[in-house]
Amino acid sequence: MGNTKRARIYSADTWHVDDGVGTDGEALRKNPVRRSFTAEYKLSILAEYDACSEAGEKGAILRREGLYSSLITDWKRQHRQGLLKAAVGRSDGGRGGPSLSELAKLRAENERLRSKLAQAEVIIGVQGKVHALLEEISKSAAPDDDT
Fold first, then answer.
1. Is residue 5 situated within a structural domain?
2. Are 79 and 111 in a shared domain?
3. Is residue 106 in some structural domain?
4. CB 63 within 8 A of CB 23
5. Which terminal CB of the chain, N or C, has fewer other CB atoms within 10 Å?
6. Number of domains in the chain
């Protein structure tokens, strides 16, 4: 390929044509909207990404989905830390929080555990007093060997 042809192909004025239409055929938006991904989507992409064994497969997935490798890195870190879990059912709380039913169960369990803790603290206090009392009784009942 000659230098003039290469210069013509790679000239700056042919790099981008703004005709108001995106690569998918949809009209371009004036204000782009940030994409958000569900946990299920992230997990499915991670599974597909990790299953890649052939050269170029990972890059093909990234191109197909319009993702960057840094997103995959972030999602893997989230998954390792346990922050990325698939939802079992529809969330009533929205935005990735626990569902209302799950929240009610957790509050009930929390209350039950607080009650159990209070009871255990009372028992431990009584045991301490009984131990101290028995120690005093054993000291007073023991014969004095020093005399």
1. no
2. no
3. yes
4. no
5. C
6. 2
Percent of the chain at pLDDT exceeding 70? 72
Residue 104 lies in a domain: yes
Classify residue 26: in a domain, yes or no.
Answer: no
Can you give the residue range of the structural domain that contains 56?
35-86
Question: What are the pLDDT digits (tens) for 2-52?
Answer: 566 555 555 555 555 566 776 667 777 777 778 888 889 999 999 999 898
How many whole angstroms separate alpha carbon 41 and alpha carbon 20?
Answer: 29
Q: What angle do CA 37, 88, 110 make, to 5 degrees?
A: 110
User: At residue 76, does pLDDT exceed 70?
Assistant: yes
Tell me the three-class secondary structure of 54-123, residue by residue. CCCHHHHHHHHHCCCHHHHHHHHHHHHCCCCCCCCCCCCCCCCCCCHHHHHHHHHHHHHHHHHHHHHHHH
Phi, psi angle pair for 141, to nearest 5°? -90, -20
How far apart (Å, rounded) are the C-alpha atoms in residues 39 and 85? 6
Identify the CA nearest to 86 among candidates 115, 47, 57: 47
Dist CA 117 CA 111 (whole Å): 10
Same domain (yes/no): 39, 80? yes
| Mean per-residue pLDDT, 50-68 | 90
Longest CA span, the chain = 117
